[in-house]
Amino acid sequence: MMPRVTENRQQFASDNLAGMCPESAYWFNLANASGHVPAYGDDEWTESVCQAMRELFHADCDVYFVFNGTAANSLALASLCQSYHSVICSHVAHVETDECGGPEFFSNGSKLLVAETADGEDAGKLTPEAVEALILKRKDIHYPKPKVVTLTQTTELGTVYTVEQVRAITDAAKAHGLRVHMDGARFANAVAALGCDPADLTWRAGVDVLCFGGTKNGLPVGEAVVFFDRKLSEDFAYRVKQAGQLASKMRFISAPWLGLLEDDTWLANARHANAMARRLYERLQAIPGVEALRAPEANAVFASLPPGTAQRLREQGWSFYEFIAGGGCRFMCAWDTRPESIDAFAVAIAAAV
Ligand SMILES: *Cc1c(COP(=O)(O)O)cnc(C)c1O
After folding, report:
1. Whose CA is nearest to atom 1 of ligand 1?
2. Which CATH number fits domain 22-264: 1.10.150.110, 3.40.640.10, 3.90.550.10, 2.60.40.770?
3. Which of 58, 194, 257, 330 is 20 to 30 A from residue 212's alpha carbon, by CA?
């Protein structure tokens, strides 16, 4: 029996619950209409997206496509490290908490060195001081040598590094010979929030490799790994293939990117998601007993709800994560989140309090 197609209620668990945006679906279908084309990325769609990325970043970057963010991060970090190296990240970094040891596995053992990050307005962010302290903590042969700093933009706690903050971290890293990787699963939301040139937030600020998230921005599937320093991408194609991340029908991962990049749809999608988070934040502020932890900078809202509220919301079929110490809930907005969905959710929260 075929599944019934009815549109489900919009949820707030993650921005990867949404489907693909019409622009990426359009290019997906266009790529399909081209019939037989070369496989493994030797097609004109893939070449066009790589060219569009070079224009977007005003740089001769080397671009690869993989199925998901875990692979993008793990393989990018592995390309920057030897097995005896270490990678500095924040204690809430996705690479540390949500990738099942992928970065360590694909690098054959590079250790993640975790820095505690502050609460408050810079929640989830590394600082140059924290990075430097970890770099200088041990200099002896018995400890893995720090080789990479990885930052997440936007962070796992919904904050956004400013260009200056990124620059300060990359300066600290480079002063000690470390490379810098950016987990940009929500890079679009950060660029939309800052209103800056994507080049200013990446290579011009000292980032060597960006994992540019497409999935949460409106693609059906797929992330781009963007190397701003081509020396670092030597043999990366082999890594991607060995990891089982080389799509034979590559055009279906690459072509939808044209829909995001054309007319800056990626930014429009991100701006919309960010605006919906702002709307939810405003709605929550009007509900007694609900405490938003901070004003949203991008598309995540964090709030603490009175005891029992989350449970009651779940019983009514609402889905969201509660993983912040102290019972905070995370509500994510997506490219397609409708204002009415925000309002309905806020009404449900107010009733459940
Ligand atoms: C979603 C996400 C990823 C990618 O996760 P996958 O499920 O492997 O695609 C990576 N980093 C961050 C911060 C994320 O939120």
Report:
1. 185
2. 3.40.640.10
3. 330
